[in-house]
Design brief:
alpha+beta, 4 helices
């Protein structure tokens, strides 16, 4: 849902570049190697073979099969999904139970932040500190970050341990503005399809593990469910946009990077 407006959420920022090296052989010089930095979230470095060096050794995945196409994004998806024990629907049920009469509008699988155990004081407007009913998972462990909305559009953030299924942080979004509430409320009014129905439509088109479900809108101002599905065969991610009013699949885009 690249063109769609989204909720004001923190998203998993897994950025990195593959290390590359070029070996220059001359009679008078030594080898010179350059390497770009990699993101902290992904620890696996995969060398890239040059077009003229087709015999370069390719790395293998855990099963021992060649995985030259496993770049850092794919490796991160594999590590994150493999470490997750709680499915998206279980996490959704848990999140919604935290907010009476609330409706799920966003759920994302991501890494736990360093400040997950912190209990910051309320904002200048007097928002309460977050509730921390259970210990937070360690930094970098998988979590489900959910947004659950009340009928007036007020968002509650619910963080769920993706291994144990326990809520470790719950709070009203302290940074949500009045116009944001209005927008969320309008999306909810348009959304006749539940998240479960949207996921069903998406996974009928793209098989795999659901890692993100989000309500937003498209260029035509129609409410749309965006669903990310990761294929565990090749670790590509497919984003499927589903009309939130009638459940029709509007588009799908495969991210092979």
């Amino acid at each position: 849902m690249s063109s769609a407006r989204r909720l004001p959420l923190r998203s998993l920022a897994v950025a990195g570049a593959l290390g590359t090296s070029v070996l220059l052989l001359t009679a008078c010089t030594n080898a010179d190697t350059t390497r770009s930095s990699v993101a902290e979230a992904a620890q696996t470095e995969s060398p890239s073979a040059s077009a003229t060096d087709s015999q370069s050794a390719s790395p293998s995945d855990s099963s021992g099969s060649p995985s030259a196409s496993m770049n850092e994004d794919k490796t991160e998806r594999k590590d994150l999904v493999s470490a997750t024990k709680v499915t998206w629907d279980k996490a959704a049920d848990t999140a919604v139970k935290e907010v009476p009469e609330g409706k799920l509008v966003d759920l994302e699988l991501k890494r736990t932040d360093a400040d997950a155990s912190a209990s910051p004081s309320g904002s200048a407007t007097g928002s309460a500190s977050p509730s921390t009913p259970n210990p937070a998972p360690s930094q970098g462990a998988p979590e489900w970050e959910a947004k659950v909305a009340q009928s007036d559009g007020t968002l509650h953030r619910i963080d769920i341990d993706a291994v144990t299924g326990k809520v470790f942080r719950s709070q009203v979004d302290p940074e949500q503005k009045a116009d944001d509430k209005t927008q969320v409320s309008e999306w909810l009014d348009q959304a006749k399809q539940t998240p479960e129905q949207a996921v069903k439509a998406a996974t009928d088109k793209a098989k795999g593990t659901v890692t993100h479900v989000e309500l937003g809108d498209n260029d035509d101002q129609k409410a749309v469910w965006g669903v990310d599905v990761v294929d565990k065969e090749n670790w590509n991610k497919t984003t499927v946009d589903v009309d939130a009013a009638n459940g029709k699949v509007l588009s799908q885009e495969v991210d092979k990077d």
